[in-house]
Amino acid sequence: MDALVVYESMFGNTRRIAEAVAEGLSRRVRAEAVEVGSAPAQVGPDIGLIVVGGPTHAFSMSRTSTRRSAAQQATGPLVSRGDGVREWLATLRTPAARLGSAAFDTRIAKPRMPGSAARGIAGRLRRLGVRAVGPAQSFLVIGTQGPLVDGEVERARQWGERLAASLPATAPGESA
């Protein structure tokens, strides 16, 4: 079984979390982190787990308008420049019956704002018929552009390890 980590990231913080999750997963299964603009429109039969994450914008997943606002605030190039996770999930085709999923987001640590992109992502995956293997997770950043709060990359790596441990035992690259 393989795992695919799909992420949307404006300033690079969500990308760092996605890479750490993939690293944690890769201790048990083959895992790859892919920016949403390069993510497949259909999940192949070799993928047994899909982990999807993005930044929390305006209490949920980003939209065209919130990505435009992020671009205006950016002091450098954006990581994700096109459609976001919301649009990708709207067109995703999956072998839902056998696919597991997990969702995560990045969000500002203080003040603690309501809403969560991860909960929205998890809901979209559930509506696609994909079963969750664990609760949605939030990883914290300091301010809109970051950086990540100390320890969040390691926490993401450990979360990836826990996700992998919850999967059926297979060798890396082996189909379940």
UniProtKB/TrEMBL annotation:
> What species does this protein belong to?
Nonomuraea indica
Q: What is this protein called?
A: Flavodoxin family protein
What InterPro entries does the entry give? Flavodoxin/NO_synth, Flavodoxin_CS, Flavoprotein-like_sf
Flavodoxin-like domain: from which residue to which, for each copy?
3-164
